[in-house]
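Annex B. Sample input.
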Amino acid sequence: MSVTHDDVRKIARLAEFEVGEEALPLLAEHMSRILEYVAQINAVPASEGVKPFVPGPDAVRFRPDEVKPPPLAFGPAEFAPAFRDGFFLVPKLGQFEQEQG
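Annex B, continued. Sample output.
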């Protein structure tokens, strides 16, 4: 497929590009080569029976997704000033303000 200078002007106008007359031959040639390449790719027969290549044996292809928390060197109860039933205990908001006044 050959792209004409008028095609290049139309594409440039649609893309809102300003193209000078001296650039038209080179752009037309490049666009023609791109379209020829796409035509070659479209000519390759595609088979639905072909599986994608994944290296390694099929049995070890994918591992199960398991979310695991990172292991801690020691539990949070050991470094928290106040910890009970799996929760950090913090003072209520405003408690310190009342003690100052």
